[in-house]
Amino acid sequence: MDFNMKKLASDAGIFFTRAVQFTEEKFGQAEKTELDAHFENLLARADSTKNWTERILRQTEVLLQPNPSARVEEFLYEKLDRKVPSRVTNGELLAQYMAEAASELGPSTPYGKTLIKVSEAEKRLGAAERDFIHTASLSFLTPLRNFLEGDWKTISKERRLLQNRRLDLDACKARLKKAKAAEAKATLWNDEVDKAEQELRVAQTEFDRQAEVTRLLLEGISSTHVNHLRCLHEFIKSQTTYYAQCYRHMLDLQKQLGRFPGTFVGSTEPASPPLSSTSPTTTAATMPVVPTGASLAPPEEAALCLEEVAPPASGTRKARVLYDYEAADSSELALLADELITVYSLPGMDPDWLIGERGNKKGKVPVTYLELLS
Length: 374
Fold this sequence. Notes:
By secondary structure, this protein is an alpha+beta fold. The protein contains nine helices and seven strands. It has helices at 2-26, 37-64, 68-79, 90-105, 110-183, 190-219, 221-257, 280-283, 299-302; strands at residues 263-264, 288-289, 317-321, 340-344, 353-358, 361-366, 370-372. Strands 6-5-4-3-7 form a five-stranded antiparallel beta sheet, with no helix packed on it. Strands 1-2 form a two-stranded antiparallel sheet. β5 and β6 (361-366) form a beta hairpin. It starts with a helix and ends with a strand. Mean pLDDT is 81; it is low at 261-287 and 289-303.
């Protein structure tokens, strides 16, 4: 019990001495041992590494999981050392909604068929995103967290210890200075000078030892940079793989949508001109894809004899052609952008097609190439 009380009193005395030394330094009333320029550079480099690692880590977390609530949930699971539950990606959720919509609206309709195809693509995109998040977390986020929660905490602990050793050293220097000043006035202070000198030697030794330990840890920041560089390459590799998968899935979807009438296929150009554009060079960029053969038409349409078709007494409309269209066979009517034609529908026709007339010529025309006029 007495030993513990003495230790507590000793610790309190050391803490008070350090506090006094620190306060006097702040007010310029005490001298402070300065570290060499190389050591200060190491400290600045370590602080910069820590600060930028934190920023990169946080922003990468935002990139991989934009939902702040989900990030907080994952953080809590990690702190509780529990497995983070599997979460449906946005792409997978969108795929689910599209599949349900197609089922309810009619999976055999053109819209329903397209919803199903896009749903399958979005599901593959969601799976690719899940793999990317998992890989990036392991190869990039985890090493950054390990540095901040492991190496950096060790460095910070040793730096605080060095600060305490430095305060002890400077306090010993101040006591020795006071003892020598008193010695000059009376010879009774010889023992105090010897004691102060002995304390100073001990404090200097402890300070030098702690400075060397801290220096080695700070120089290890170079190894940290090498490790983070390797992790960065792994992150870019996983990101490249992810975007390549997305590109491949979208190309497959584009090809599949090209088989459906009335489906717009996206352009690989940075931007598409307005649909009303008449420029020959820009028309192809926004060209909707239509069936290239008569096999997609209903049986009753395939057997349709255009010479025998007569326009209904009512229901004909004028339409302006938006794009040039080359007829795939004799049952279709070739179109030129901006020309006006007469269109009408017949019972049993595919809703994505109309009968078009221009002069004495008639044939099937895709609705997506037309702007119906009132």
